[in-house]
Amino acid sequence: VPAWLCVLAGIGQLAYMTLDNADGKQARKTGSSSPLGLLFDHGCDAMNTFVSGLSLFTVLQLGNTGWSLFGYLIAFVTFFMATWEEYYIEALNLPCFNGANEGLVGVSLLYFFSAMVGTQFWNQHFIGIATKYWVVVGFAIVAILTIKQNYETVREKTQEKFVEARSKLSVLIYLGVTMFIVWALSPTDVISRHARAFIYFIGFSFSKLVGILQATHCAHEEYDPYRKSILISCTVVNFHTILAYATGKGILLSEDAVIVLAALFAFGAHCHFAYNIIEQFTRVLNIRVFKIGSDESQLRKSDSAATDDDLERQNISS
Q1: Rg, C-alpha atoms of the chain
Q2: CA angle, 236 as apex, 239 and 140 as ends, to 5°?
Q3: Is 0.85 topped by the overall pTM?
């Protein structure tokens, strides 16, 4: 990877982190804060999980291998568990050192370091193991500790309803199982040729799952993770891979075609979800998208929201 591209990736990562932390403050300042803003924020974060992950794994020289899939699995499970915890405790509690802040700074520094020493540095061995694998193992250790904390927090919060809360993770687990089936059983090792397309397929499915979780959180509704688009597409990919493993070749379509079509389908399903959920939120809340109004009604709404916030703070203090 060229040094200039590593620098650009590092700058982009820092810009994303800064804007991600500033958008809420800007929304409150302009009186445009809304549940849709929260949903949109987390929706972009979910997509960034696999987009930034692809850049990171490329710089680390992991290539089209199971290590890239494992690294991505770490990223999206960690993100989903934090969102799952937020749904049940109605607050996003990040530890002192977390991926959204220190983690992103660390990734940016890794990009800048790679620009200085060259990305081939990560192929050098340390105690007999390539450095890039040590980095992934380090990510995994931090992720396990974070996921354990999320799990314990939700169990304490839900108590006797924890079994039901835990069942909401089933589709997330199914996405992980799909990754394992394709990686382990593909007779033609399709991951070696189309790891990026496969990660797009899982990534957009994951983003839709997070979006649904956030939408139900904002609307105070029961979270239903069983979405037809995700379950059907994953089942088709799994079924095709298992049949190909049993027969030694793809059925009707090649494995390459199935993975690429699955990625396109997941992208389309995610766009369909995003458009419809934004349309519903704007209609119900009577707000606009990507536009801060200056008309009297918008100003009155902002003043009313500020007054309500003041009253709420007074009630809390009293």
Answers
A1: 22
A2: 85
A3: no
Query: 3-state SS of the chain?
Result: CCHHHHHHHHHHHHHHHHHHHHHHHHHHHHCCCCHHHHHHHHHHHHHHHHHHHHHHHHHCCCCCCHHHHHHHHHHHHHHHHHHHHHHHHCCCCCCCCCHHHHHHHHHHHHHHHHHHHCHHHHHCEECCEEHHHHHHHHHHHHHHHHHHHHHHHHHHHHHHHHHHHHHCCHHHHHHHHHHHHHHHHCCCCCHHHHHHHHHHHHHHHHHHHHHHHHHHHHHCCCCCCCCHHHHHHHHHHHHHHHHHHHHCCCCCCCHHHHHHHHHHHHHHHHHHHHHHHHHHHHHHHCCCCCCCCCCHHHHHHHHHHHHHHHHHHHHHHC
- The answer for residues whose C-beta is within 8 angstroms of residue 136's C-beta and 6 or more apart is 60, 62, 67, 70, 71, 74
b (16+ CB within 10 A) / e for 60-83: bbbebebbbbbbbbbbbbbbbbbb
Residue 65 backbone class (left: φ over 0; alpha: ψ -120 to 50; beta: rest): beta
Instruction: Give the C-alpha separation, 47 to 225, whole Å.
Output: 18
pLDDT digits (tens, 9 = 90+) for 205-257: 999 999 899 888 888 888 888 989 999 999 999 999 999 998 877 677 888 99
Q: Return mean pLDDT, the chain.
A: 85
Q: Name which of 9, 11, 13, 2 is nearest 118 in CA terms.
A: 2
Q: What is the pLDDT of residues 61-81, one digit of tens each?
A: 998 888 888 888 888 898 889
CB-neighbour burial class of residue 233 (10 A; exposed 0-12, middle 13-18, buried 19+): buried
Closest CA to 266 of 214, 240, 217, 228: 228
The residue written with tokens 């090649």 in the block is 254
Our measurement of the distance from residue 44's CA atom to the centroid of its chain's CA atoms, rounded to an integer in Å, reads 8
